[in-house]
Amino acid sequence: MWVEFFRVIRSISSTMANSSEIQASRLMGMGWFYSFKRHLLPRLLPMIATLSAFSLGNAILALATLGFVSVGLRPPTAELGLMMTELFPYYYEAPLIFLQPVVAVFLMVLSLQLLSRKIK
């Protein structure tokens, strides 16, 4: 999962390293930390936040999927995919009970996506 972060950060850093903004700040005698803080970090933080939200959403979906197919954590541990598996036989009697972990996963992933848009 770190490969996406590396590629995005490397791409932005390499284009910004050759920009006129950084060259002008270097010519004025500013150090590398000032250039990083003033020019590079404001461009990197929104991308890192967006990628983090997407990666966290993918991790939540992957854990719920593995738990649903009984590959994840074992039954004493509470996990959303395992809850779906255990509540699936009761779907016809009480469908709202089964939908609670589904809605929880949906709301977590949706909130992360909305948060990434807000940060962007």
UniProtKB/TrEMBL annotation:
Residues 1-116 form the ABC transmembrane type-1 domain. Pfam families: BPD_transp_1 (PF00528). SUPFAM superfamilies: MetI-like (SSF161098). The keyword Coiled coil does not apply. GO terms for molecular function: dipeptide transmembrane transporter activity. The keyword Cell membrane applies. It comes from the Bacteria. CDD domains: TM_PBP2. Keywords: Cell membrane, Membrane, Transmembrane, Transmembrane helix, Transport. GO terms for cellular component: plasma membrane. This is Nickel transport system permease protein nikC.
